[in-house]
C-alpha cells in the first residue's frame, strides 16, 4: 500500500457537486492499493500515519502526531498512486489491485482509523472526485507498506 499524506488546515471531497467528506485540521490521505496487499499492509499504514510526528508543538518543532492533536483524516482511494512511469509515456497500472479487492482494503483502512477514535471522512470509491485542500506548511509525506521509500 502506498499513501500520500498531507497535513491540512482543511480539506473536502466533492462528487457530482455534493460534498461527501470534509475535515478541518488533520491529514488528507491518498491511498493506493496493490494487488499483493493484505490486511497487514493496512495495519502498518494506519499505525504509521496516525503516529507520524508531523504537527508542530509549542516550540514550532514537528513533534506531535495526529493522535496528539486530535486531528481528522480525509481518506481518498487513488489507484493512480501505483502508476509505473519508468517505461514510455503512459503509466502502467498493472500493480494496482482490482476494484473488488481494493475496496475491501480501503474500507479496512477507514474502519481501523475510526476504531482508533479518529474522525475519518471519505470520498466515494471509484467515483470521479474533486478534492480541495489547504496544505499546511506545506507538509507532504510519502508512506509505503513495502518500505520502498
What would you note in describing this structure?
The protein has helices at residues 39-51, 66-69, 99-115, and strands at residues 2-15, 18-23, 26-32, 55-56, 62-64, 72-77, 120-122, 130-144. The protein is an alpha/beta fold and 149 residues long. The protein has a single domain (2-144), classed as D-tyrosyl-trna(Tyr) Deacylase, Chain: A (3-Layer(bba) Sandwich), CATH 3.50.80. The strands form two sheets. Strands 1, 2, 3, 6, 7 and 8 form a six-stranded mixed β-sheet that branches. A two-stranded antiparallel ribbon has the order 4-5. The N and C termini lie close together (12 Å).
First-to-last CA distance: 12 Å
Number of strands: 8
> Can you tell me the overall shape?
globular
Number of domains: 1
Q: Return residue spans where pLDDT drops below 50 for at least 5 consecutive residues.
A: none
- What kind of sheet is the major sheet? 6 strands, mixed
Structural class call reads alpha/beta
CATH fold descriptor? D-tyrosyl-trna(Tyr) Deacylase, Chain: A
CATH class categorisation: Alpha Beta
Amino acid at each position: 500500500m502506498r499513501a500520500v499524506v498531507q497535513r491540512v488546515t482543511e480539506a473536502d471531497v466533492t462528487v457530482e457537486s455534493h460534498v461527501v467528506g470534509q475535515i478541518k485540521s488533520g491529514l488528507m490521505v491518498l491511498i493506493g492499493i496493490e494487488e499483493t496487499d493484505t490486511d497487514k499492509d493496512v495495519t502498518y499504514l494506519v499505525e504509521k500515519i496516525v503516529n507520524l510526528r508531523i504537527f508542530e508543538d509549542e516550540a514550532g518543532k514537528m513533534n506531535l502526531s495526529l493522535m496528539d492533536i486530535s486531528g481528522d483524516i480525509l481518506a481518498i482511494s487513488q489507484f493512480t498512486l501505483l502508476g509505473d512511469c519508468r517505461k514510455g509515456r503512459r503509466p502502467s497500472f498493472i500493480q494496482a489491485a482490482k476494484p473488488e479487492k481494493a475496496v475491501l482494503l480501503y474500507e479496512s483502512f477507514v474502519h481501523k482509523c475510526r476504531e482508533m477514535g479518529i474522525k475519518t471522512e471519505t470520498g466515494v470509491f471509484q467515483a470521479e472526485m474533486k478534492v480541495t485542500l489547504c496544505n499546511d506548511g506545506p507538509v507532504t509525506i510519502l508512506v509505503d507498506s513495502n518500505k520502498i521509500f
